[in-house]
Specification:
By secondary structure, the protein is of the alpha+beta class. It is built from five helices and 17 strands.
Length: 287
């Protein structure tokens, strides 16, 4: 897959794993062994030309990771990210520059095709890197609007959390019906495909539930990732995507610093949501 990521910069991504017998198999075959590649989960390359990015990403997915880094370094202007089978992320010397750009307010060329309410990060940078405070929680509230006098179909909704590298660390809600419609939640689906390539585990069955009608709903995040471990305190993005058959497609994003300082944010209403809010603070006592 090759896609434009910046003016005069092209990105190539190679990683397609199919599961069989509990093991993941790549679509790429190592010509030295005749067997599918299994030591690299994904290889992402940014280069001046799309052809260079695509070819280099394929080569990096086949070569041993260390050799791949040396090859990328030999191509002028190319930078890469390699995720190996044990989950480690290996990067070229200049890759960090792209990660820093993603964490700052994003220029027009990196905006998704979908209309989004993208704002600056709420909160302050933590003084030191630490874990999520177990006494804190994030509460996402949303109100599904009544459309067409209640005769329209219920919308599909996805709510998830992305880390500073735009990697989806947790899906909080996935309301839809029928696997054929899941691609309609295209932003969430794309993010989960990246997660699947890195982690190799399916989570749809574990997080999916039925669609909801008009009304107010609340979803909470306890600061844990997909594996149940507390994440690091710091910058994250809360994303809400709504798609309705014969309706509109909406995506809301808000960058926020989860570092112990209470925060509140309200999204403006749109054709699918009468309102949405984000509250980060101490856990509320339950009766």
């Amino acid at each position: 897959m090759v896609c434009k990521v910046a003016p005069n910069r092209q990105s190539g991504l190679t990683s397609y794993f199919n599961a069989y017998g509990g093991h993941g198999y790549s679509h790429l075959v190592d010509p030295r062994t005749g067997w599918p590649v299994d030591h690299v989960r994904s290889a992402t390359v940014v280069a001046a030309r799309a052809t260079d990015a695509g070819a280099l990403a394929t080569a990096l997915a086949v070569l041993p990771a260390e050799e791949g880094l040396l090859l990328a370094a030999s191509v002028p202007g190319a930078e890469c990210l390699i995720v190996v089978s044990d989950g480690r992320r290996l990067t070229s010397a200049g890759w960090r520059g792209f990660e820093t750009a993603a964490a700052s307010p994003r220029p027009d060329w990196i905006h998704a095709v979908e209309a989004s309410a993208d704002r600056g990060a709420v909160g302050v940078e933590p003084a030191a890197e630490g874990r999520w405070d177990p006494a804190m929680e994030a509460i996402i509230g949303l109100e599904i609007a009544s459309v067409g006098g209640g005769r329209s179909r219920k919308p599909f909704v996805a709510i998830w959390i992305e880390d500073r590298d735009r990697f989806p660390v947790r899906t909080l809600a996935l309301w839809y019906h029928g696997a054929r419609w899941l691609p309609d939640l295209r932003a969430w689906n794309h993010a989960d495909q990246l997660r699947l390539m890195a982690e190799g585990t399916q989570l749809v069955d574990a997080v999916a539930s039925a669609t909801r009608g008009p009304g107010k709903y609340t979803v909470k995040w306890d600061g844990k990732d997909t594996t149940g471990k507390l994440v690091a305190a710091g910058h994250y993005t809360v994303a809400i995507e709504v798609a309705r058959e014969h309706g509109t497609h909406q995506i809301l994003r808000q960058e926020i610093v989860f570092a112990g300082e209470p925060q509140h944010f309200d999204w403006p209403a749109n054709p699918e949501l009468a309102g949405a809010s984000l509250d980060y603070g101490r856990k509320r006592a339950t009766r």
